[in-house]
Write a structure and sequence with these properties.
about 170 residues; mainly alpha; 3-stranded mixed β-sheet; about 10% strand; elongated
Length: about 170
Amino acid sequence: MPELNTTTLGRFCRELAGGLDSLPVLLSEWGISPQDFNDIQTSPAFLQEMQIVANEMRDLGNDAGYIYRMKSLSESMLPEVVAILKDKNTSPVLKFDVIRWVAEMARLKEKPVPKGEFSGPRGPTVVFNFGHGLPVQSMKVVGVEDVQMQDAVVALTTRVVDTPVDDSGWPV
């Protein structure tokens, strides 16, 4: 039986909103009495989580109920997923598939950006500027701020900076 706390309240609210089970079954699974549920419904944390759920469901559109049911089911499968990943007998191919599934469920997969919505570089940008006759060994790569990605966690673009060299081509 899951425990209702600040960490699991969101899951409870998603299960409630997604209609995975009837209210009496859901309350029984979570070990919540009808009186406790009445008290929970008036708590600020519950009201805030339900507002988040309502906003997400509105944004998801017609598939919101299905998506929320799948979220609840995938969340309940996490103990089995961890057991599969820790099992030394699990094949590397299966582990890879499980890790990919977890990343997809966690929304870590990059979402496509509609054409024309974002014109700047996406991810690291590498620019090589080689001068005439400069050996590659005489250059170093430094990070410079990329103004097009100011909101990124790491807003850097790399560029090559010329290092002074002597007549033989060695850095000085």
